[in-house]
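Tutorial, part two.
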Amino acid sequence: GIRSTAPVDDAGGRAPARSSRAPMTSGNDSNEGGDGDDHDDEDNSRSAGAASKSEMDEARSNNSDKDDEVFDDDDTISDDKGSSGDALPFRIIVLTQRRHWSLRRLLRSVDGADYSSAGPGGVRLEIRVDHALSADHNRTVEIARRFDFRHGTKEVIELNSTAGLQYAWFEAWTPSSDRERAVILEDDMELSPLWFAWMRRAWDEYGGRSDLGGMSLCRQRLRASDGAHRMFQSDAPFLYRIPGSFGFSPHARHWRRFVEWVRGLDDLRSVNLDVEGTVTTEWHRSQPDSWEQFWIWWCFRKNRKRKLYTLYVHSRTGALIGHWAEPGVHASEPARINDNPLNMTEAVLERFPKELEHYGWDFELEDTTR
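Running the prediction step on this input gives:
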């Protein structure tokens, strides 16, 4: 269940089961094993013991059947001609639980951004607070409630039972239109003041592409074929197969179908999400409580025409978002930011070419003409 300080429209009404998270890294040199997550790690025992091959095969078959019910191969964006949807608010969705110091820093950066390009729909801030029993949690709720967002409307959604970060992602957003836009932020992020201007323009330019699953604000370092980290340099936005969970903005059309599918699964732990050529498959087998592998499988499912990439822009001097990797379930080192948030625009942030390069699991250029 949830309770809210404002009327809840699409925040979701059911209290999800508990879950912990072991996320794949999304570009943090200081923490290659994953980022620190704020959510309670009460149910690690749920993931103990791998399912047998026959069980996994059966789960995959059931999973495929449920996928077929909500997915069609028509890549037409039904009501989207590339526009961000001027009449709809751009949603900034914050996921938090008890790291009030992180939340305060993130909200300060949210409020410090430039929203002059928001359009008549404006900007809507949603702070989703997972349940916990601690003084830190109570302080987090207090900060969320008292925060004055100067650029638009604000809603605080407090869960009445512990969800965990995996379910927090799956329940974060239920788009009602292909033209809705949102970005999902975990609380140990810090935004560049330039983030919104770039993302809004990127959605205007590329929102109608059939190969776009979403976009991310981070500089993605992960080479998905082997888990190595490399700083890929490009003088223009590009498409890469791996999502970036630091400031991820999924395409409403695909995210709506994705969450409909994943919320209908009977047992998330037993679903076979193997994607050939990815190290993230191995990571998920050992810790099947992240959200990203579900999205990767959805976007690049074998024997499907569907290939949905994530859009990135890589400045040479900083990023549109920084990740602090705060101490938590999956990080124990003192927090330090992985990228400095940009304060001044650069040529790469103003460049939106019609043709985009596609990169595969190995971070090598793909030939999309075949």
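The domain at 2-23+45-359 is CATH 3.90.550.10 (Spore Coat Polysaccharide Biosynthesis Protein SpsA; Chain A). In part three we will examine how such features are distributed along the chain.
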